[in-house]
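Annex B, item 7. Sequence and structure tokens for protein A, then protein B.
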Amino acid sequence: MTAPDGPRWNDPQLDALADGLRIAHVRVAGLPPQVRPQMTRHLLVITDLAKRDAALALRRLESFLNDLGER
């Protein structure tokens, strides 16, 4: 996952999560209006999960981005 340059943390996992969330938000914003609300809800669940378990959130985010790539 690559995203625009921004602040970096000392934790590569959190950096990857932040980059992935930025990418996901951009991709979801570009979806057709019929599917955007559902995908936004999925993304919000992942974002909320990141507060408690970054590793699990990163795995779910990667799966989410793969699903978006298939659309």
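Protein B:
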Amino acid sequence: MPSQREDRGDADNPQESDVERFGGETRPCPKCNADIYDEAEWCHKCGHVLSQADQKTPGWIFVTASVLITGFLFFLLFR
């Protein structure tokens, strides 16, 4: 009886087709810290489903938003 799962070789290393599809950029999984592709939707090691919440927001966005809000409030209060 044939196996339902094909022999994929070393499961911890990415396939060439995956490297071409996702590129070579990786990041750590937030749950198990395994290297996963930036555009992956789930971790191949622990199965953790990745979402936009798992990606950190750059700090400059908070700084820019704070400056804009402060400037707007200053404009409203002292015009």
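Comment on protein B: The first strand starts at residue 26 and ends at 28.
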